[in-house]
Design goal:
Blueprint (H helix, E strand, L loop, with lengths): L2 H28 L1 H9 L5 H19 L5 H18 L3 H4 L2 H24 L8 H21 L2 H26 L11 H24 L5
């Protein structure tokens, strides 16, 4: 599969994943019975269960992608999108519809801009990987620490830095799709790139929502 075909396939599956994610999130919020079933299950620890399941699926997709059959990779990707949508159901109750729409559009614009940068730049972004990984690891550690500190200034700084990191990751992942050597013989390259871009988009959206989203009164 040619690079442009891989990228096109990745964006197709990204669109499907986002549609499933936000679709199930919205539907589960509208229907009280589904929402109660979603968050009232597992002894009231549904969110934790979804989070653990997401992490497990993310690890499997990242580590085993080259050994999976194409159908298996697609099913796991759809499953991950579904779980993410269930875990995000609460955002429609916390934030106004206009705020969610605005932040989603801003996310799409930023994501699109850095996707274009990743596709067209002559800079080798693969050299950035280790720096991006270390930055992301530092962000995760600081966010865990801030759960106890409850420092609003630190929270804002982490939000801004996280947005910058995932903007860079978006460009990096798009360029990865154009790399002839990366997963050259793997049938699941498109799904793998779609999964990485899905993570980039969702994290950008959530951080922008936390900074600029308007809560319901």
């Amino acid at each position: 599969m040619k690079n442009n075909e891989v990228l096109s396939n990745a964006f197709k599956w990204l669109f499907i994943g986002l549609l499933i994610c936000f679709g199930i999130s919205y539907v589960s919020t509208l229907n009280e019975d589904i929402f109660l079933l979603t968050y009232g299950s597992f002894g009231g620890n549904a969110f934790l269960v979804y989070a653990i399941a997401e992490i497990v699926l993310a690890i499997i997709l990242s580590v085993r992608i080259t050994k999976m059959k194409p159908l298996t990779a697609k099913i796991l990707y759809i499953g991950y999108s579904l779980l993410t949508g269930l875990s995000l159901s609460g955002i429609f109750l916390i934030y106004t519809a206009s705020s969610l729409t605005f932040v989603f559009l801003v996310t799409a614009i930023i994501f699109g801009a850095f996707s274009i940068i990743g596709k067209t730049t002559d800079i080798d972004l693969s050299k950035w990987y280790i720096y991006l990984f270390v930055a992301l690891l530092a962000i995760i550690i600081l966010e865990i620490v801030n759960i106890f500190l409850l420092n609003n200034t630190l929270n804002i700084i982490l939000g801004i830095v996280t947005i910058l990191v995932f903007c860079a990751y978006t460009a990096y992942d798009v360029q990865l799709a154009m790399n002839n050597e990366f997963l050259a013989e793997c049938e699941n390259k498109g799904i793998y790139i779609a999964f990485q871009l899905f993570l980039d988009f969702i994290n950008l959206f959530l951080k922008l929502l936390r900074l600029f989203g308007k809560s319901r009164d």
